[in-house]
């Protein structure tokens, strides 16, 4: 239990030293260093839903996010100077972690934010799960490349998993061993 609490604390605690060094020694920290992961709240849902709608032709609705809160899934946002840049949702149980949703504002993509969020999810899952799973659309090569770079391996296909403009789209299943 204590290990899990330490992981949560590390996600929630803000490192003021980074902000100080950014002001005094601007070249000593990167933009990613100044971004922080924090627990998503109900107040974040307006922005989270905007990002969701920008990224997906069949977005989750507010009720799905609220259900994630209610059942206790790990819900985080990545922010910079109070601006939400992306969000991620993870479920843990029976030795498994499952990434349910991860999304970066389209205006912020390609800058390492998705990697930062995935690394956070992996860190949270370590010690709580043996394997982390996720699904991704074959039409999302950027996400596929990120997951591969992080050590995920393709383990299968879920036929017709995602809604699509012309019917359904398969999902590529990925897994990462956390042991």
Task: Outline the structure in words.
The protein is built from seven helices and seven strands, in the order H-H-H-E-H-H-E-E-E-H-E-H-E-E. The chain is an alpha+beta fold and 179 residues long. Strand 6 and strand 7 form a beta hairpin. The longest helix is centred in the middle third of the chain and has 13 residues. The radius of gyration is 17 Å and the shape is globular. The two termini are 18 Å apart. 23% of the residues are buried. The mean pLDDT is 89.
Please report the total strand number as a whole number. Answer: 7
Strand order of the largest sheet: 1-2-3-4-5-7-6
Mean pLDDT: 89
As a whole number of angstroms, the C-alpha radius of gyration is 17 Å
Shape: globular
Sheet with most strands: 7 strands, mixed
- Order of SSEs, N→C? HHHEHHEEEHEHEE
Percent of residues in helices comes to 25-40%
| SS-derived structural category | alpha+beta
Task: Please mark out the parts with pLDDT under 50 across 5 or more consecutive residues, or reply none.
Answer: none
Q: Approximately how much beta-strand content do the residues carry?
A: 25-35%
Number of helices: 7
Distance between the termini: 18 Å
């Amino acid at each position: 239990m204590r290990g899990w609490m330490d992981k949560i604390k590390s996600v929630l605690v803000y490192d003021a030293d980074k902000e100080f060094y950014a002001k005094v020694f601007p070249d000593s920290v990167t933009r990613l260093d100044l971004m922080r992961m924090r627990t998503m709240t109900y107040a974040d849902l307006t922005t989270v839903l905007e990002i969701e709608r920008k990224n997906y032709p069949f977005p989750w609705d507010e009720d799905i996010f609220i259900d994630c809160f209610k059942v206790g899934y790990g819900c985080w946002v990545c922010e910079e100077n109070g601006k939400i840049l992306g969000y991620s949702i993870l479920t843990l149980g029976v030795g498994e972690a499952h990434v349910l949703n991860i999304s970066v504002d389209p205006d912020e993509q390609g800058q390492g934010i998705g990697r930062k969020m995935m690394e956070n999810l992996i860190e949270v899952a370590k010690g709580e799960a043996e394997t982390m799973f996720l699904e991704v659309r074959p039409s999302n090569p950027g996400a596929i490349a990120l997951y591969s770079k992080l050590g995920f391996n393709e383990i299968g296909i879920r036929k017709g998993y995602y809604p699509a403009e012309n019917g359904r789209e398969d999902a590529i299943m990925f897994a990462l061993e956390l042991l």
